Amino acid sequence: MGQSSGIGVLDKAVQVLRATAAAPMGLADLCAATRLPRATAHRLAVGLETHGLLARDGHGRWHPGPTLAVLASAAPDPLITAAAEVLPRLRDLTGESVQVYRQDGMSRVCIAVSERAAGLRDTVPLGARLPMTAGSAAKVLACWADPVVQRAVVNDGHITERMLAEVRRRGWAQSVAEREPGVASVSAPIRDPKGAVIAAVSVSGPVDRIGRRPGARWAGDLVQAADALTARL
């Protein structure tokens, strides 16, 4: 059930929200997941739906509603806040563009970026959605993704199990002309306070400038930046 607030109806409503966040659920599935009586589960789900905290799909199953997205958008993101402090220092240290990526299904999304001031850049726009099947950040995120994502990444053929094992062993990944011709990058994992990998921090730039072994130049700095981001969480 998770933590108890001492307010029974609130705790039960949170149970319903957590259950439907895991997968869309009809009433029978919701009762099984929460172990709530049928009448209680139905009453709570309908009440949450009234406030937009839940919605129903075409099969009548409840899933997270639009009000949750509105509330979440107003909350500060601690990783983005931390990135605003750490990325400019990493950019200045390396002289290259730096990014933070989060996994979203079979994509990775750039949630923070700090561009080099001048010269040829490897510009990844804020909010850019890139594949999980190529690039150093993709390797880092795939290493600690759920098994379904890992299998899909490996089955694509560009990233192998052996590559992922090597990334886990050394704690960083590099890529040269994988996602885009002429671009190289190196990435390291960012962890939450419990040690789970939640994102990747990257340095990227033209191969002609940073070479074909970017890890030899920047891996240590990336790992330190990742540790600094983790510490701020």
Automatic annotation (TrEMBL):
Keywords: DNA-binding, Transcription, Transcription regulation. InterPro entries: GAF-like_dom_sf, HTH_MetabolicPath_Reg, Tscrpt_reg_IclR_C, Tscrpt_reg_IclR_N, WH-like_DNA-bd_sf, WH_DNA-bd_sf. Transmembrane segments: none annotated. It comes from the Bacteria. GO terms for biological process: negative regulation of DNA-templated transcription. SMART domains: HTH_ICLR. Residues 67-233 form the IclR-ED domain. Residues 7-66 form the HTH iclR-type domain. The keyword Transit peptide does not apply. GO terms for molecular function: DNA binding; DNA-binding transcription factor activity. This is IclR family transcriptional regulator.
